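Structure ticket #2291
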Amino acid sequence: MPLGMAKSEADKLVLQQQQWISRTLMRMQQQAPVVEEALPANIELLAIGEKIQVVYVENRKEALIWKQEVLQLSICSDEVAVPELLRYWLKIYAKEYLPDLLKKTAADMRIDYRAVSVRLQKSRWGSCSMRGNISLNAKLLLLPPEVVRYVLVHELAHLKHMNHSAAFWHYVEKFEPDYREKRSELRRLSMGLPVWVHG
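Resolution: structure written out below.
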Protein backbone atom coordinates (compact mmCIF):
# COMPACT_ATOMS: atom_id res chain seq x y z
CA MET A 1 0.00 0.00 0.00
CA PRO A 2 1.28 3.49 -0.81
CA LEU A 3 1.75 5.73 2.24
CA GLY A 4 -1.45 7.53 3.16
CA MET A 5 -3.78 5.13 1.31
CA ALA A 6 -6.76 4.07 3.36
CA LYS A 7 -7.24 0.31 3.90
CA SER A 8 -10.72 0.50 2.35
CA GLU A 9 -9.18 1.99 -0.84
CA ALA A 10 -6.55 -0.77 -0.92
CA ASP A 11 -9.22 -3.47 -0.53
CA LYS A 12 -11.22 -1.89 -3.36
CA LEU A 13 -8.13 -1.82 -5.61
CA VAL A 14 -7.39 -5.49 -4.92
CA LEU A 15 -10.98 -6.45 -5.80
CA GLN A 16 -10.81 -4.45 -9.05
CA GLN A 17 -7.51 -6.09 -10.04
CA GLN A 18 -8.36 -9.61 -8.81
CA GLN A 19 -8.20 -11.24 -12.26
CA TRP A 20 -4.85 -9.63 -13.07
CA ILE A 21 -3.41 -10.64 -9.65
CA SER A 22 -4.56 -14.26 -10.11
CA ARG A 23 -3.12 -14.47 -13.65
CA THR A 24 0.18 -12.92 -12.55
CA LEU A 25 0.53 -15.22 -9.52
CA MET A 26 -0.15 -18.27 -11.69
CA ARG A 27 2.46 -17.17 -14.24
CA MET A 28 5.03 -16.53 -11.48
CA GLN A 29 4.44 -19.98 -9.98
CA GLN A 30 4.92 -21.63 -13.37
CA GLN A 31 8.17 -19.76 -13.95
CA ALA A 32 9.54 -20.29 -10.43
CA PRO A 33 12.32 -22.88 -10.10
CA VAL A 34 11.38 -26.14 -8.42
CA VAL A 35 12.65 -25.93 -4.85
CA GLU A 36 13.67 -29.16 -3.18
CA GLU A 37 11.83 -30.04 0.01
CA ALA A 38 13.56 -28.85 3.17
CA LEU A 39 13.72 -32.38 4.58
CA PRO A 40 15.36 -34.92 2.25
CA ALA A 41 14.53 -38.61 1.89
CA ASN A 42 18.10 -39.18 0.68
CA ILE A 43 21.42 -37.35 0.84
CA GLU A 44 23.83 -37.89 -2.04
CA LEU A 45 27.45 -37.59 -1.01
CA LEU A 46 28.93 -37.39 -4.50
CA ALA A 47 32.48 -36.84 -3.23
CA ILE A 48 32.62 -40.34 -1.76
CA GLY A 49 29.97 -42.08 -3.86
CA GLU A 50 27.46 -42.72 -1.08
CA LYS A 51 23.68 -42.29 -0.99
CA ILE A 52 22.34 -41.91 2.53
CA GLN A 53 18.75 -42.86 3.32
CA VAL A 54 17.10 -40.47 5.78
CA VAL A 55 14.29 -41.85 7.96
CA TYR A 56 12.12 -39.62 10.17
CA VAL A 57 10.80 -41.17 13.37
CA GLU A 58 8.44 -39.68 15.97
CA ASN A 59 8.53 -39.91 19.77
CA ARG A 60 12.08 -41.12 20.31
CA LYS A 61 14.65 -40.15 22.92
CA GLU A 62 17.66 -40.01 20.58
CA ALA A 63 17.54 -37.05 18.21
CA LEU A 64 19.82 -38.73 15.68
CA ILE A 65 20.93 -42.32 14.99
CA TRP A 66 23.56 -43.01 12.30
CA LYS A 67 23.87 -46.57 10.97
CA GLN A 68 26.94 -46.41 8.77
CA GLU A 69 26.87 -50.11 7.86
CA VAL A 70 23.56 -49.60 6.00
CA LEU A 71 24.04 -45.88 5.19
CA GLN A 72 20.91 -44.88 7.08
CA LEU A 73 20.38 -41.72 9.09
CA SER A 74 17.42 -41.83 11.47
CA ILE A 75 16.17 -38.48 12.79
CA CYS A 76 13.55 -37.69 15.38
CA SER A 77 10.99 -35.62 13.48
CA ASP A 78 9.68 -34.14 16.74
CA GLU A 79 12.82 -32.05 16.86
CA VAL A 80 12.18 -28.47 15.76
CA ALA A 81 15.64 -28.10 14.23
CA VAL A 82 15.78 -31.13 11.91
CA PRO A 83 17.86 -29.26 9.28
CA GLU A 84 20.29 -28.33 12.06
CA LEU A 85 20.63 -32.03 12.98
CA LEU A 86 21.31 -32.87 9.33
CA ARG A 87 24.02 -30.21 9.17
CA TYR A 88 25.54 -31.46 12.43
CA TRP A 89 25.70 -35.00 11.03
CA LEU A 90 27.21 -33.81 7.73
CA LYS A 91 29.98 -31.97 9.58
CA ILE A 92 30.83 -35.02 11.74
CA TYR A 93 30.83 -37.34 8.71
CA ALA A 94 32.92 -34.93 6.63
CA LYS A 95 35.60 -35.03 9.34
CA GLU A 96 36.04 -38.74 8.56
CA TYR A 97 36.76 -38.18 4.87
CA LEU A 98 37.94 -34.68 3.96
CA PRO A 99 41.23 -34.75 5.94
CA ASP A 100 42.23 -37.98 4.14
CA LEU A 101 41.34 -36.49 0.74
CA LEU A 102 43.46 -33.43 1.56
CA LYS A 103 46.37 -35.62 2.68
CA LYS A 104 46.27 -37.59 -0.59
CA THR A 105 46.08 -34.42 -2.71
CA ALA A 106 48.96 -32.84 -0.75
CA ALA A 107 51.04 -35.97 -1.38
CA ASP A 108 50.27 -35.75 -5.12
CA MET A 109 51.41 -32.12 -5.09
CA ARG A 110 54.40 -32.87 -2.81
CA ILE A 111 53.41 -30.10 -0.47
CA ASP A 112 53.10 -30.00 3.33
CA TYR A 113 50.45 -28.25 5.41
CA ARG A 114 50.35 -27.80 9.18
CA ALA A 115 46.81 -28.84 10.17
CA VAL A 116 43.32 -29.31 8.76
CA SER A 117 39.91 -28.51 10.22
CA VAL A 118 36.41 -29.18 8.89
CA ARG A 119 33.69 -26.61 9.42
CA LEU A 120 30.26 -25.84 8.01
CA GLN A 121 30.65 -22.42 6.44
CA LYS A 122 27.96 -20.49 4.61
CA SER A 123 29.93 -19.41 1.56
CA ARG A 124 33.63 -20.33 1.64
CA TRP A 125 34.59 -23.78 0.38
CA GLY A 126 37.97 -23.63 2.06
CA SER A 127 40.70 -21.38 3.39
CA CYS A 128 44.42 -21.46 4.08
CA SER A 129 46.14 -19.45 6.80
CA MET A 130 49.63 -17.96 6.76
CA ARG A 131 50.63 -20.61 9.31
CA GLY A 132 49.70 -23.43 6.92
CA ASN A 133 46.38 -24.38 8.52
CA ILE A 134 43.70 -25.43 6.06
CA SER A 135 39.97 -25.26 6.75
CA LEU A 136 37.50 -27.19 4.58
CA ASN A 137 33.74 -26.87 4.26
CA ALA A 138 31.79 -30.03 5.16
CA LYS A 139 29.50 -29.29 2.18
CA LEU A 140 32.32 -30.50 -0.08
CA LEU A 141 30.97 -34.03 0.49
CA LEU A 142 27.96 -33.04 -1.64
CA LEU A 143 30.12 -32.18 -4.67
CA PRO A 144 31.58 -34.46 -7.38
CA PRO A 145 35.12 -35.78 -6.66
CA GLU A 146 36.76 -33.78 -9.47
CA VAL A 147 35.34 -30.50 -8.13
CA VAL A 148 36.40 -31.38 -4.58
CA ARG A 149 39.92 -32.06 -5.83
CA TYR A 150 40.00 -28.63 -7.49
CA VAL A 151 39.08 -26.98 -4.14
CA LEU A 152 41.78 -28.97 -2.33
CA VAL A 153 44.40 -28.07 -4.94
CA HIS A 154 43.30 -24.43 -4.74
CA GLU A 155 43.78 -24.29 -0.95
CA LEU A 156 47.08 -26.19 -1.01
CA ALA A 157 48.37 -23.85 -3.75
CA HIS A 158 47.98 -20.99 -1.26
CA LEU A 159 50.86 -22.52 0.69
CA LYS A 160 53.05 -21.44 -2.24
CA HIS A 161 51.24 -18.22 -3.16
CA MET A 162 49.08 -16.48 -0.53
CA ASN A 163 47.12 -14.56 -3.14
CA HIS A 164 45.28 -15.04 -6.43
CA SER A 165 48.08 -13.75 -8.64
CA ALA A 166 48.98 -15.08 -12.09
CA ALA A 167 51.69 -17.17 -10.40
CA PHE A 168 49.08 -18.73 -8.11
CA TRP A 169 46.81 -19.74 -11.01
CA HIS A 170 49.78 -21.04 -12.99
CA TYR A 171 50.66 -23.26 -10.02
CA VAL A 172 47.04 -24.49 -9.74
CA GLU A 173 47.07 -25.25 -13.47
CA LYS A 174 50.04 -27.62 -13.02
CA PHE A 175 47.77 -29.95 -11.03
CA GLU A 176 44.38 -28.98 -12.45
CA PRO A 177 44.84 -28.10 -16.16
CA ASP A 178 41.08 -27.47 -16.58
CA TYR A 179 40.72 -25.49 -13.35
CA ARG A 180 38.64 -22.79 -15.10
CA GLU A 181 35.92 -25.32 -15.96
CA LYS A 182 36.03 -26.76 -12.43
CA ARG A 183 35.77 -23.26 -10.94
CA SER A 184 32.69 -22.53 -13.11
CA GLU A 185 31.19 -25.89 -12.16
CA LEU A 186 31.75 -25.09 -8.47
CA ARG A 187 29.87 -21.80 -8.84
CA ARG A 188 27.00 -23.56 -10.64
CA LEU A 189 26.77 -26.35 -8.06
CA SER A 190 26.85 -23.85 -5.18
CA MET A 191 23.52 -22.48 -6.40
CA GLY A 192 21.84 -25.90 -6.39
CA LEU A 193 22.73 -27.20 -2.93
CA PRO A 194 19.86 -28.77 -0.93
CA VAL A 195 17.72 -26.39 1.14
CA TRP A 196 18.61 -28.03 4.49
CA VAL A 197 22.32 -27.31 4.04
CA HIS A 198 21.85 -23.57 4.40
CA GLY A 199 21.92 -22.72 8.08
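Closing remark: The helical segments are 7-16, 18-31, 82-109, 145-157, 166-175, 179-191.
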